[in-house]
Amino acid sequence: MPPTRRTRQQPLSHGRIVATALGLLSRVGLPDLTMRAIGTELGVQQSALYHHFANKQTLLGAVADAILARRPALDATDLELPWQEVVRQRCRDLHAAVTAYPDGADIVMSMWAFGMGGRAPFDEQREILGTTGLDARGAKTAARTLLHFVYGHAYDEQSHAQAARSGIASDARPESDFDTGLDIILTGVESLVVR
Question: Is the pLDDT of residue 120 over 70?
Fold first, then answer.
């Protein structure tokens, strides 16, 4: 009888753990995204994960960054457009990225608030808004306000969808007002630039 070939398992790595967490998040959502579940998915004890991540929050910070990395990159030609168009499109891209995963908005918003991940969109928006004539404080406040809106809107959509799946809320949902809300905020930012 010929010997059976054993398939060699990939070594455990930071990237492999994050990719597995993202896959699990897509299937089960944040409440069931536990270190134990990730370890089981990888075929290792959960303690092995702590060689790569100090705790679950550190892992979730990396997951938040991986979700955000799926946005289209900001291109140099984008910056040739009026700043309002650039900011609007980057907010739309961000909204699409965080809503691509169940509870994606919750993870990214929380990790940004904790200072454990998800900082790239804030830095990017602050930099773009800094070219408008706003002072550093104004650009920072405008960037934070835009992200609060994007994440809050996405969180609301995802929470409603989860409640509808659970039978807690009706499936009926009015047409999205995301673009309208974004226009309102950008109009406010423009008024500060004009001053």
Answer: yes
